[in-house]
């Protein structure tokens, strides 16, 4: 959804249309109460959520709106980023080493052919 919002934002910028992604966590609504058996410390009232969400209009392309939700989402993104960076780092290292080994093997074959 974030990527789609970014693309739409670029496409409609010339028409002064703002596209914003809102990624909330738990808002204390009747539906949320039915889905969750216990009180969640991250839950905010609908009034508080809307108040913060409206403040974010025009100032952020992507927002969690409420400070509690921002803290949780940013923490999650940081952890996910660290995990992905480590995974991609290992993957890059693997392919880099493989390419290096393949190049060395190819060079050795070339040297042997030149000797013959």
What does this structure look like?
The protein is mainly alpha-helical and 116 residues long. It has four helices and two strands. It has helices at 2-12, 30-35, 46-56, 67-115, and strands spanning 21-22, 62-63. A two-stranded parallel ribbon has the order 1-2.
Explain briefly what this protein structure is.
With 116 residues, the chain is mainly alpha-helical. The chain has helices spanning 2-12, 30-35, 46-56, 67-115; strands spanning 21-22, 62-63.
Structural class call reads: mainly alpha
Query: Unreliable segments (pLDDT under 50, ≥5 consecutive)?
Result: none
Q: Widest sheet: strand order?
A: 1-2
Number of strands: 2
Average the pLDDT over all residues and give the rounded result: 75
Shape: elongated
Task: Give the biggest sheet.
Answer: 2 strands, parallel
Number of helices: 4
Radius of gyration: 25 Å
Q: CA-to-CA gap between the ends?
A: 60 Å
What is the H/E order?
HEHHEH
% residues in beta strands: under 5%
Helix content: 55-70%
SSE order and pairing:
Blueprint: H1 2-12, E1 21-22, H2 30-35, H3 46-56, E2 62-63, H4 67-115
Which properties best describe this structure?
116 residues, 3% strand, 2 strands, two-stranded parallel sheet, mainly alpha, single chain
């Amino acid at each position: 959804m974030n990527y789609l919002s970014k693309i739409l934002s670029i496409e409609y910028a010339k028409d002064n249309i703002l596209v914003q992604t809102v990624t909330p966590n738990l808002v204390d609504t009747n539906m949320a109460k039915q889905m969750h058996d216990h009180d969640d410390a991250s839950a905010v009232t609908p009034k508080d959520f809307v108040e913060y969400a409206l403040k974010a209009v025009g100032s952020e392309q992507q927002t969690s709106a409420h400070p509690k939700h921002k803290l949780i989402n940013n923490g999650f993104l940081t952890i996910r980023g660290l995990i992905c960076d480590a995974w991609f780092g290992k993957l890059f290292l693997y392919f880099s080493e493989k390419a290096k080994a393949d190049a060395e093997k190819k060079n050795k074959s070339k040297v042997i052919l030149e000797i013959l």
